[in-house]
Amino acid sequence: MSESKSYFNSVLRCRKLAAAAAAGYSDKVTLPPSFLASFLDTLNLDYEDMPSPLILRVRRQGGPKASTGDSQTIYCGVREFSGDEGIIAIPDWLLDEIQAQEDDAVVVETVKLEKGQFAQLQLLDDRANPENIDIRALLESHMRQRMTALFVGETISINVGGQTMPMRFTVSALEPAEAVDVVDTDLSVDIVNQQSQTHGRQAGIAELAPDTPQQIVL
């Protein structure tokens, strides 16, 4: 990951976010009230001056699933500051990204990311695609409502009406950095097919012009 400045950090234990709150594959976590209080006090800020969006870098080092010195890192947003003390509640799909189990210790940092300008997403399974779906509209709705940041290597899952399995993408490239803020920005998105590695119209994918990234306004 490219470097991003950290303003505040705390070590918390991770738990799975409640199923109802985690529905829809949002990247937002729940933190305890003391995290917000300590963050504002450390930076000498009033609540009204808090950065928006508040973006977190969550990383795990060591542990039973990681090699010595290895580190898994995610970037995410904040759902609310109403959780149990000492606990960060994380959607299960993000726990998988950092290979963390419940009660593992994680370092939670507040960071400033650059606004995203371009994203290349690799479609993982064409067979999950219903015909004539407007992928641009689907991505735009999902990222506007549920995503705060994107990072290279992240797997995004999007529920599709009438489908039992979500549509899944891997973030294969980003500009201007390997982790970006996607709130209130114009993001050009290029979809790459997993099998052919070519851009453009594939079976069951509508609204993708060949070699033309689609602009998504978030």
Automatic annotation (TrEMBL):
Q: Which Gene3D superfamilies match?
A: 3.10.330.10, Ubiquitin fusion degradation protein UFD1, N-terminal domain (2.40.40.50)
Q: What is the lineage of its organism?
A: Eukaryota, Fungi, Fungi incertae sedis, Zoopagomycota, Kickxellomycotina
One Pfam family of this chain: UFD1_N1
GO biological-process terms attached to the record: ERAD pathway; ubiquitin-dependent protein catabolic process
UniProt keyword Repeat, yes or no = no
Q: Which GO molecular function, any one, fits this protein according to its record?
A: polyubiquitin modification-dependent protein binding
Similarity-based family:
Belongs to the UFD1 family.
Task: List, alphabetically, the InterPro entries matched.
Answer: Ufd1-like (IPR004854), Ufd1-like_Nn (IPR042299), UFD1_N1 (IPR055417)
Instruction: Give the record's keywords alphabetically.
Output: Ubl conjugation pathway
UniProt source species: Coemansia erecta
By what name is this protein known?
Ubiquitin fusion degradation protein UFD1 N-terminal subdomain 1 domain-containing protein
Q: Where is the Ubiquitin fusion degradation protein UFD1 N-terminal subdomain domain?
A: 11-113
Q: Which GO terms describe its cellular component?
A: VCP-NPL4-UFD1 AAA ATPase complex
